[in-house]
User: What shape does this take?
Amino acid sequence: MPVAKPSATSRSELSGTPPAGPVLGSEFFDRDTVAVARDLLGKVLVREVEGRLLWGRLVEVEAYLGPDDLAAHSSGGRRSPRNEVMYGAPGHAYVYFTYGMHWCANVACGDMGECQAVLIRALAPMAGAEAMWEDRPAARRTTDLCSGPAKLCQALGITGSDNGADLIAGDRGIVVLSDGCAPPRRPGNGGRTGIVVATERPWRWWVEEDPNVSRWTPRV
DNA sequence: CTATAGATGCCCT
DNA sequence: GGGCATCTATAGC
Assistant: This one.
């Protein structure tokens, strides 16, 4: 599995090996999407790219629940090349392009033919911060590196070429693993970010008190 | 610290 | 053409 074997050119400051613990498998992702979202808090996203190994702990997520969710890209059963991955097997990455310049990463959940996903909104950087700084010159503090869905994609070098990646097999250097850190018993919970309030439902969860959670002011 | 404008390209109830 | 699951720089307290 690619991320378990860092290449010889890994930078020394990345400390070489990711946290010990099992990579999440299909039994994790092929469940109710809300349960997957909540349980992803505290898990570790590991990324191997260009011989570098980076990882961070998930501290903020949002669920998008398919045809009946007006805010989802799959709302109303819409199906297109863009959202095709969400209809496929759970545990695959749905990476989309937005605002003309940003990538955002999701994990597809639910059975084949369903179209649900969890958006990864923020990470607490754990290793590879040097590489993250290089890819995020606008960041001023460590908490600027991964405190937003597009920020963390930039920090980890995740782009459209990673759309459809199998996070269970780690076929493109991305996996999620558990290092034994349990999800918070009482996570923060509220409306999703950037969604028109009238269509909104409380499907955003975060780790309370974590400084890497994205800040957000509701749109009027 | 908060508030606001502008960037920029793909998608399309 | 309008909107977008966003971010950054800048202005103003």
Notes: Helices of chain A lie at 26-29, 33-40, 129-135, 149-156. The first helix of chain A runs from residue 26 to 29. Chain A has one domain: 22-206.
